[in-house]
Amino acid sequence: MLRTGIRLLALVLCVSAGGDFDWTKNEKTSFYYGTFPTGFSWGVGSSAYQTEGAWNTDGKGMSIWDVFAHKKGKISSNETGDSSCEGYYKFKDDINLMKEMKLSHYRFSVSWPRILPSGLRSEHVNEKGIRYYSDLIDLLLDSKITPVVTLYHWDLPQVLQEKYGGWQNASMVGYFNEFANLCFERFGNRVKHWITFNNPWSISVEGYETGEHAPGLRTRGSGAYKAAHHIIKAHAKVWHTYDMKWRSKQKGLIGISLTADWGEPVDVSNQRDVEAAERYIHFYLGWFATPLFHGDYPAVMKEYIGRKSGQQGLGASRLPVFSPQEKSYVRGTVDFLGLGHYTTRYVTQKNYPSGFGDSYFADRDLAELVDPKWPDPGSEWLYSVPWGFRRLLNFAQYGNPMIYVTENGVSEKTLCTDLCDDWRMQYFREYINELLKAVRDGVNVKGYTAWSLLDGFEWDEGFSERFGLYFVDFRNKNKPRFPKASVQFYKCIISSNGFPSQREVESWKRKAVETCSSSNQLLAADPLIGHMEMVTEIVVPTVCTLCILLSAVFFMFLLRRRL
Ligand code: BGC
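Structure for Cytosolic beta-glucosidase, as requested:
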């Protein structure tokens, strides 16, 4: 009842994201020295298929990624995640790495077919899979690292794809809810941060529109919208289940992780470019965030897809419609917004005539451009544009939600085995600094997750792109991990909680001196230590100075005699 009241109030108070965003105010300001609020959470992330390996071990069922990666021609060099980093066997070592970094949280995902091999709870629960995640969670908690658990990082049980067509089918909403419910039942006494879906944009567009990702379908112009519709409903159902059944006992939070690039108008004084950039973001982030915060798709999506569907002679829009009941069911079902962000594009208006064919991309009527001066060290699509991060965070204001940055990082090409990843340190330094500026702007960010702990299986790119803070030698069957220079760098940011200004450093030093001098007094009470201090602090410097003076006098004396 109270929750419903709060949701209604939030609805009344909330303003649409980007509504009052000032496009002209793009301060590309210099580096900002300062620290994050106390309690800010620093972490790293991973996902099951990218790191676990053990693809057919201990009763695990097949996922759509196991099947997709085994098909020839789908993945760069036909690589698979069969063994990947062997994280399933090496999680204890990995937690030690995290402990050394003094991380506050670790984001990982549960492989649905590892615990429900056929996808369905009614058929078989794989206790060995449950044990693996349970042990992982216990060890994290023993190590004072908060587990942040993603329920779906793309590895749908293959049986559900084959029998029902995966996310094309509405029945997935119920099956996902059963799986989530099992996770709450078995892990919910220890896990307090749940992420239902990771990057649903990618699941929908790359899985069902372009087919670059599993399940590899190319149902252009409709499949992605249908998949997204079911994902949004599935998220909402899980939120309601948790709310009704578990929240009062377990006191956890349910969020979703949305990934979006920033879109900057090519010409900010041109209204058509500004609208194109806004459309770019609404088709990316708003597609999911607007229904979950406000109960319906962004008006601009309904308008564009509806108009184009009409021009294509279709009787109804390719974008599915929420009924009034569904609108109120999905609205307000986010306890925190997870945000994944990597890069930026310039955007300009571009008309796609109706004869061009159905496609998510054509529906947006825009073109994406990049500045050739932007650094792009690794993945082809990933240009380093730090200021875009602050812009996105300021735009994503769906009633000032609590935000966790759930992914941010940069890759390098696989052949580059140089552990001195200075471009990654540069990327982290600048992106985290823009995050700090966003916090100062008033954006309610509670934590940051560097992507990723280890190099891993980079989806259709196989192992050819490395996002890890730790280098993994995939050619060695033990998959040893080696720290790149960015490990130490990130550790420094964590230990100083940002980028302390000179003034802050001075005041810390003062405090340290005060603490030290009181501890010195304690130490000085010990006569031996007192004596040693006198020797090192008074006797040694005095003797050295005398020696230097005497040698100088002696040297001058010699010189004068020669002259
Ligand atoms: C995905 C990660 C992936 C990263 C870089 C993200 O959207 O969630 O699994 O490694 O992109 O491609």
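Residues 47, 50, 198-199, 202, 259, 340, 407, 458, 467 surround beta-D-glucopyranose (CB under 6 Å).
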